[in-house]
Design goal:
GO molecular function: peptide chain release factor N(5)-glutamine methyltransferase activity
Structural class: alpha/beta
Number of helices: 6
InterPro entries: RsmC/RlmG (IPR046977), SAM-dependent_MTases_sf (IPR029063), Small_mtfrase_dom (IPR007848)
EC number: 2.1.1.297
Number of domains: 1
Strand order of the largest sheet: 5-4-3-6-7-9-8
Shape: globular
Helix content: 25-40%
CATH architecture: 3-Layer(aba) Sandwich
Enzyme class: transferase
Radius of gyration: 17 Å
Protein name: Release factor glutamine methyltransferase
Mean pLDDT: 95
CATH topology: Rossmann fold
Length: 231
């Protein structure tokens, strides 16, 4: 793991396991979470809106009418902020049925049913052939075995999700399209950058947010674009 000594790894493990327990402890009828001035509902086993997505939400730009795919949508936060920016079409995808339930509720609650739809999908499986102007992604940061669907929001067994994301994402971008991607200092930042560059993308940092005063948990947002070679 990049930028983390062994004690830090253990502390991050404890914190993430605590978060997973928290996500599972939500009442059956859901819990309201305040996030960047808006409210979102989460049902049990859904990843809550948190500091991790803030550097993306605060710094990404959607042009009016653009189409957006949000990968690992969770409660739908990033996708719904895309709607508020004026996106013409938004699709949120997630493998977790609880996240799908939460995101669908939030789409309706924020009044974007005509703009946004939520699809249960393991990455791009259920959106074959669809292309977008913008792809946003908040997928698990750490190469660590995920024992259940809740852990999969934080841990990426053998880094399969990240590796497959970059292998396939170009197939779902319109010409001139771009990616907004989140990662963290306790994840595999260098590895992600290598995967992106190997897939033909430039990588530019656009924002960071710190979740704690000691800065053991720092989240980064990146803008990625296809590198066009001049001949």
């Amino acid at each position: 793991m990049e930028n983390a000594s062994m004690p830090d790894v253990l502390r991050i493990d404890r914190w993430q396991k605590g978060r997973q327990k928290l996500f599972k402890s939500v009442p059956v009828d859901g819990k309201m979470i305040k996030y960047l001035g808006k409210e979102f509902k989460v049902y049990p086993n859904t990843f809550w809106p948190f500091t991790d997505s803030k550097p993306l939400v605060k710094n990404f730009h959607i042009q009016h009418g653009e189409s957006v795919l949000d990968v690992g949508t969770g409660s739908g936060v990033i996708a719904i902020f895309s709607c508020y920016q004026g996106a013409g079409k938004v699709v949120g995808i997630d493998i977790n049925p609880a996240a799908i339930k939460s995101a669908k509720h939030n789409v309706k609650m924020h009044g974007f049913e005509k703009v946004m739809k939520v699809v249960k999908s393991n990455l791009f499986d259920n959106i074959a052939g669809q292309k977008f102007d913008v792809i946003t992604a908040n997928i698990p940061f750490r190469d660590k075995f995920a024992h259940d669907i809740v852990a999969r929001a934080q841990w990426d067994t053998d880094f399969q999700t990240n590796t497959r994301f970059f292998a396939e994402v170009g197939n779902h971008l319109n010409p001139g399209g771009r990616i907004y991607f989140i990662h963290s200092n306790f994840g595999e930042t260098d590895r992600v950058k290598k995967l992106a560059k190997a897939a033909g993308f430039s990588v530019k940092a656009i924002g960071r947010e710190v979740a704690d005063k000691s800065e053991t948990k720092v989240f980064h947002a990146f803008l990625m674009k296809i590198i066009v070679e001049n001949h």
